[in-house]
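INTERNAL AUDIT FORM
Audit reference: QA-55
Scope: verify that the stored structure record matches its stored sequence.
Auditor: D.O.
Record contents follow.
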Amino acid sequence: MRQAKSTQQRIAAHVERFPCGQAMLARDFLTFGPRDAVDQSLVRLVRRGELVRVGRGVYARPVIHPVLGEVPLPVQEILRAYTERSGAKVQIAGAAAVNLLGLSTQVPVGTHYYTDGATHRLTRGKQVIYLQHVNPKVLVCAGTAAAPFLSC
């Protein structure tokens, strides 16, 4: 007789299929069991180092470099997960937009983005992403190639 796998074992097996550095949402695992069991399983996977918590309800497999150790997740991947979770629009802002367009050689310390969601900071280690709430009219081109031009 074959024994059924636990919620944690099914989640761990599913997580193994994701590439390192790709963000995933906690709600994606609700098919494996009840919410509290899923949350507890994700916490255990974070403690074991198999996952990193990027933000509330957002997890990813860590990217490990042989020399540098754990590498921060790409900003675009963190923002993709944030927008998927919250449903908010996000658009690059200010100095980061100017640098992206090659109009400045200065690299901003923190990356600033405009959003129609709540204003807050996303942090992952020393990496900080600032999200500033703006009027939705400012985000007309969010997600398009024209967005940096309108943010300068």
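Auditor finding: record pair retrieved intact. The chain has a mean pLDDT of 81.
Action required: none
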